[in-house]
Each structure stands twice: as structure tokens, then as C-alpha cells.
Predict the structure of Ring-cleaving dioxygenase.
Amino acid sequence: MKSLKGIHHVSALTANAQDNLHFYTEILGMRLVKKTVNQDDTSVYHLFYADERGNPGTDLTFFEIPHAAKNREGTQSISQTALRVSSDETLNYWLERFVEYNVDNSGIQERYGRKVIDFKDFEDQRLQLISDETNSGVEGGIPWEKSPVPQEKGIIGLGPVRLSVPRPEKTHKVLTDVLGFQQHTTYQLNGDEVTVFSTGKGGTGAEVHVHATKDMPRERPGRGSVHHVAFRVESEEELLKWVTHIQSLGYMNSGFVERYYFRSLYFREPNGILFELATDGPGFEGDEPFEKLGENLALPPYFEDQREEIEAKLKPLETK
């Protein structure tokens, strides 16, 4: 099998799709490239925010679960999602913007040799802006020119994803022996060790940081938590090879799953983190033209005969 190419997308939970839409499009300036439904529960939204056309490696997605309880942070979790920006200087722009919009943040810090800002959204989703100043790995995307954030300051994709786990050696083994990641150096975070892994071309768009937690209760997911992280597979042909590989190792898994915008495989590693392998294509323009991405409710063809019923259950979203 070919190496995984990097981070494909991260999917998180929100209790309020309208407020979520406001934060990620109006404050963070990402483009809503697909407004659809959770294919496992069509009564709720699945929103995709990304670069100008939802290129693989740029998608941060949210399942809406109305009335979801607040996330109780802890171990056995995807505990931070990074978003890439072009340079160290760009972080100064974001500090000013976060002050303007009262976004809770850490200020500019240095972590693993890069400038970062840790911050949270309105539901305490744990996020980070990371500078690509020194990045030489996976290329970023192109921010949407109609964003309220100037294009040269915009978010260009997903950065490293941090996993917090009580038995780090088990996650390390899955990343290296099963998924083919390479292990790099470590750094300290609040007195704990974090080990860095990368795949494909490496760099900010292809890293997983495994945080070895101590004496921490298990996370109780709710609004503000992350559901899963997906890694990039080049093609459907390659994905089928991965399905065979994962099944041969005895992992409980979903098998091949048709998501229309991409094809997927899901499985859990021993610390309970849900991993997805997802193909780079077909992408988001099969049912909407580039200029209209995200403007209307998009449904895969196998749900079209249920459109009237599905739309009746959804609260309309107000978009600018």
C-alpha cells in the first residue's frame, strides 16, 4: 500500500449549527463548502468548513447534536486540532482578531519549533493556529477570496492533531506498525511527554502528536469534543487495500463505506480513538458548482428520495 498522505479531515461535535456556522465562517473565515446531513442520522446537520473548494487536508467538519451536554475534557480523546496559517507574522493579525471577537486564546507561543496560538471556540472546542513559516511538508490549500478574513491571512488547512491517551505505547504501535507513520522527537506539555509522528511528505499537514496523560479521567464527549480524525488515502483502489490490511490484523472496523464525497474505512485503536481512512476524491463539486458550494442543502443521491422528509426535520441556517 502507498503511504497515507496526511490529515484528511477532523470531525467534531456542536450543539448549535447556527452559532457554529457564524464562528467558523465569520470569525475564522473558513468557507462552508458543504451543508449536508449526518449520513448515519439524517435528522441533524453535517457542516464542512475548509479552503476555497474543500481540498483534502483542509476540512474541519461538525455534526450537530442539539442539546448535547458540555464536553468533559480528559484522556482517550482527540484533545486539540490545529489550523495552519502561512507565517509567523500572520499570527499577529489573528491575535488582534481574537481580541476583537473576544476569542479565548493563549497568545503566541512556541511549540515543537513553531509559533502557535492555542484558542477555543464558543463551545470550548480546543483549537490551535500554527504557523507554516518553516513548513516543508504537505502543501496547504487556498483560502476563499470572498472570506471576511483577507486571503493572505486565511487558514490554509489542518495542522497537527493531538491525541491524549493513557497508554501511549499502544497508540504509537498502531501509528507506526499498522498505518506506517514515522516517529520523530518528543516535547513537553504541562509536564507530560508528547511524541510526534508524521506520514507522507510530513510537515504540519501530516502530523499526529501523541500526548501521554497521567492521572486524568476519561473524556466524556459532548459539545466541544472531537469525534474522529481521518487520514488521506490516494484512491479507492488504495482504500480497498487498507480494508484488507486492517481486517487481516483483527481490528473491529466498518469495512468499505460510501460517503459520496469520499470513500472511507473506520476503526478504533486500543486507546479508543476513532480513526478514519478517507480517499482524496471525488470531492465536493459533484453535486454543486464551485461558485455555489455550501449554499444549499446537499444530499448524496441515495438520500434524494428522502429530501422532503429530511428538510422538514432541519432548522434552516441563516447564511450571509
Q: What stands out?
A: The two ends are 44 Å apart (CA to CA). The mean pLDDT is 97. The CA atoms of residues 191 and 213 lie 9 Å apart. The longest helix spans residues 88-100.
